[in-house]
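Figure 2 data, in text form.
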Amino acid sequence: MEALLRQSMNVCPFLHKTSPATLRSLSTSVQVQHAAPGGGAMSNLQIIARRCPVMGKALTAQGARSGNGMLAGAFGGSRAYHSRVPRANLHTTRPQEARAVEMPRKRDHQVPFVQPKPAASAAQHQHGMPPAPPQAARFDYNSFYENELDKKHKDKSYRYFNNINRLAQEFPQAHMTTPEEKVTVWCSNDYLGMGRNQHVLNKIS
């Protein structure tokens, strides 16, 4: 394509007046709705060239040499000049008065960019599963229990329960750890035993 452009520089006023940077920008920007003769999308420069009577013939000849009859049949000679193609802000006049005009902005014809997904973590690649969330610290119940007991001992609020063995045959006698250590036990919750208390018997008699 570059060789064809160099050969046409002396013939086409558009190529003669347009800067190389603009031509390079047009040749790299494409419009996906237009198919190139060899397949794929056509650049903006090729679309403009199809409307030019000089470049249209050159493109037709190039398509014929490459064996693409579709290009020669659809865009051959004067038909390429008179065919109804959307005018992308280009005014086609006589060849000697052809001039560059504002081209479509590249942003309007760019292919939408797909945002890549974030890469998975190394742990997920190794095990196939997302890493487990960190476990919360467990409550140290044993230390809490020891501290509370210590407080009870220090403020004298800890209750001690004596281990006694009550003697049914010698009621209300009971003994402590050793059988010889006997004590008298009256318990308000012992309703049957309280029924044998002398004070209770005196009240009900």
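Caption note: The longest strand covers residues 30-35.
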